Amino acid sequence: MPATGDKLRFRFAKTGTLRLLSHHDLMRCLERMLRRASLPFKSTAGFHPSPRIVLAQSLSLGVLGREEVLEIEFLQPLDADSTLATLREQSPLGLDFTSVRVVPMKATAVPRRIVYRIELPPERVAATASRCADFLAQNKLWVNRMKPNPKQLNIRPYLRGMTVDPLPDASGLLTLDLWVTQTGTARVDELLKLLDVADLLDAGAIAERAVLEIRDEFTNTDAADVPPDGPADTLPLDPATIAELTRKEEELAAASWAISPAGPVVE
User: Fold this and answer.
1) Domain tally, the chain
2) How far apart are the C-alpha atoms of 35 and 50, rounded to whole Å?
3) Which of 34, 104, 184, 230 is most buried, most CB within 10 Å of its CB?
4) Domain ends where: 63, 85, 102?
């Protein structure tokens, strides 16, 4: 008997040049797909209604996604497999819907764990592996965060694992295995900076999110292998550090103004 429902949870991959598509542009793309497919989606209220679409965890610009999750609410029960096939027909190259399941209307795709991967050149493998071991041996690992409010955040509880595995050509595969909690997680960009490999992205390396684990889809049998519980461990930032971070953010914004992945934007 085919599965039907008025709220469907899809798994999809975002690859190729679509990794340069922002979160807001992706939402607009999904809306166009739904309209072209003539699917009866629910809309939000207000002056600017939009489809009731929720992404479990937004991707950073430029990062590939292999197992992304989105939920769509519809005005009536739909056959899950037929809806998946319809969306596949409307998907642009690089946006690949891989599976679907019916979920209760009150269900929410809450992330539990995410895994990022990036390939390292041979000359960076040993040093990066050593830094990973050093960080995992520490009880606390502090980073500076400016949003939503300036603070120091201990991201060590969010690190489930950090490894560098050798590849046949002497390069290495850096894997960042991170917990996602109600109070936060570690960010891939700050971890790459701590590991001193953030420059690889500027040189053309591509990070990918290979795993996005959802809480209500996972059955855990190991009581020790669970996300941290409780409030985040934070410290206040001193005014001098806040001023320096603000200055750097303003310089970065000025340098990237009117620049798109394809080059300067001309109005």
Assistant:
1) 2
2) 11
3) 34
4) 102
Residues 21, 80 within the same domain:
yes
**Maximum alpha-carbon separation in the chain:** 64
Q: Are residues 19 and 142 in the same domain?
A: no
| 15 and 136 both lie in a single domain | no
Both tokens of 20, joined, read 């340069």
Beta bridge partners of 14: 65, 95
**Contacting residues for 241 by C-beta, under 8 A, at least 6 apart:** 144, 150
Tell me the residue range of the domain where 61 lies.
4-102
**On the CB side of 232, how many CA atoms lie within 13 Å of its CA?**
21
- CATH of residue 46: 3.30.70.580
Q: How far is residue 190's CA from residue 155's CA, in Å, rounded to a whole number?
A: 10
**Global confidence as pTM:** 0.90
pLDDT in tens, 68-100: 999 999 999 999 999 999 999 999 999 999 999
From the list 152, 159, 144, the residue with the least C-alpha distance to 234 is: 152
Tokens 């959802």 — which residue? 214
Yes or no: say if 71 and 54 are a contact pair by the CB < 8 Å rule.
yes
Neighbours of 235 (CB within 10 A): 12
